[in-house]
Each structure stands twice: as structure tokens, then as C-alpha cells.
Amino acid sequence: MLKLFFIFLKIGSLSFGGGYSMIPFIQSELVEKRNWLSKEEFMNTLSVSQSMPGIFAANIALNIGYKRKGLKGALFATLGCVLPAFVSTILIAIYFKEIMSIPIIKKIFEGVRPAIAALLVYSIYKLIKNGKLKLVWYTLAVATFILVAFFQINPIYLLILGGLLGYFIKGGSKHEPTV
Amino acid sequence: MNLLFNLFIIFAKIGVFSFGGGYAMLPFFQKYFVVTLHWINMDIFSNIVVISQITPGAIAISFSTFVGYYKAGILGAIISTIGIMLPSIIIVILISKFSSKFSEKKAFLRVLIGLQPAVIGLIAAATYHISISNITNLKGIIIFTASLFILLYKKIDPLLLIILAGILGILIK
Question: Measured between alpha carbons, how far is B25 from B18 in angstroms, rounded to an integer?
Fold first, then answer.
């Protein structure tokens, strides 16, 4: 149990830039080093974690923790995975005013913010490139963009709409998705 | 007490609908905390996104921790983070229990296909909001363009890009 906690604590501490950056690391730790899962089980866990709501990395921890030690294992693994983010963010939050009053830090933040816009654009580019959706689906993407960005419509409705359309429309993708 | 309960409910609601990763969740945070509740402004919103990129772990946790702390101290941060995690904990465990081949169900795969364009639209909306409040001068335009260029052509690691952008932030007047 503690082992689960510490392994995911380590994984959580080293995961900068989202869940996907953790995949090679989790794989070497759990598949190659410890033989907890076969490569195939690991890929399966990934696809399940990806299709569930919630945080991708935490879902991986949940799934693997649950498989090994049931509910308790799932909770310990998830706690380990989330703790580094929680602790580092709360330290910044506590001293936020002091930190932001340092001129050089303010400049760094100013520099990083436009780069985040670029990261977002790049992630859209990658989603479109790897998604292989039929062209008509992009009307939904455009509609979502307009409604959420300019009319402040709650994103929940657009996700529900997308899910329903997906459910009722067969053959929406050029390929069966490799979820 | 009421505030803590509110924090929990709002984050749990976002937790249920968090498909497509952290970037797709940004419009939720923007809608609830900036537009509807006025808890934070776009400046703090953008700063939380920066913090999420320079600390380990998911964007969602940065938001639940930061906004929770901002509104109700450490207890607020803990309650909010539990709130955002709980729906997925319940869903993942129920699914592991009752279905071993969940990801192979055809109908569910179709739902996921329908979610993809919505997620793309959501990230586009986040891009729009972050861009209009952060790319406001020549310096911003330069850093944005340079970042996009290296992302597309050099496949740079996001963390390294953040570090470079931070350095540019100091160097460019």
C-alpha cells in the first residue's frame, strides 16, 4: 500500500506539462522495473484512463491502484499522484502576493503567458491532426468555440451535445478511434 | 461552511465533465470563476495557468488548490481538490468493478468521437480568452509567434518552452 503511494508520489513529482509526459515514466516504473502489468495491460489501462472523465494521470493511478489493492490501493495511489501538485501549488498560493511583487518574477510570468497561448494552439493542431474526424464534425468544434468564447455558454452543454451526437451518428470517424 | 460546500459542489461538477485533459477544462474554470462568480479576474486566471505549467501535476489540481485556497484557506484547497477528483474516483471504480471491457463498447466509443470536436472547440475558446488578455503588445506577439514556431518545427518539450519564454520575458523590454 505504501509502495503504491510512494511510486505514484514519485511519478506525480516528475510529471510536468500534463499526464501524457508521464506515460514513458510510468511504463518504465511499473511495466519494466516491477512487472506489475504486462505491456498490453498497460496500454489497456491507458485507454480506459483516457476515456474516463477526470485527470488522466490520476485515472491511471486509480486504475492501477484498484487493480492491485482494491479501493484502498486506488485511494493511496491517487493521493500520491496528486500530492506533489497540491503541495507545490499551495506553497505558491500562500506566498502569491509576495512572489508577484518581485519584478523579475512578474516579467517571467509575462513572458510565459503568451507561450501558453502557443501551447494551446499547438494542442489544437495535434488534436486535429491525430483525431481523423470527418469534416462535418468540425462544425461542432466551430460552434463550440463561438458559443463558449463569445456567448459564455456553459461548456457542459456542448460536451453533452457532442456526446449525444456521437452516440446517435454512426461512422463519425474515418477510423475506429484508438482511444 | 456554506462557502466550503459551494466550492465542493462547483469543483465536483467540473470534475464530472472533465473530458479531454486540462486545456479543455480551462473554459469551465473561466466560466465559473471569472465570468459567473467573479472570484478571480483574467490576470489571476492566467497566472494560475502559468503556475500549473511550472509545477508538477495536472492543471485541474492547480486550479482546485489555488482557487480553493484563495477563497477559503487550506481547508478550501483540500475540499476543492477532493471535489474535482471525487466524480472520476467514483466513476473509475464503478467501471473497474462492473465492466472489464468498457473501452471496447461501440456505443461508448461513438460518444468519445462526439466529444472530440467539442473538446477542440473548448480549447479554441480557452486559447481565445488567454490570447486576448495576454498577447497585448509587441513583446507578447513576439513570444507567442516564436513559441508556436518552435513547437511546430522543433517539437520542443513544453517545460523547456516555458523556461525559454520566461527568459524572453526578462530579456525583452
Answer: 6
Tell me if A82 sits within 8 A of B61, measured CB to CB: yes
Cα–Cα distance for residue pair A106/B125, rounded to 1 Å? 25
Query: B129 contacts in A (CB within 8 Å)?
Result: 149
Within 10 angstroms of residue B138's Cβ, the number of other Cβ atoms is 10
Q: Which pTM was predicted?
A: 0.88
Query: What is the pLDDT confidence band of residue B100, given thresholds at 50, 70 and 90?
Result: low
A17's grid cell: 506539462
CA gap A70, A92 in Å, rounded: 34
pLDDT in tens, A53-93: 888 888 889 989 988 888 899 999 999 999 999 999 999 99
Interface test with B, best of A46, A89, A97 (most B CBs within 10 A): A89
For the CA atoms of chain A, what is the radius of gyration? Answer: 20
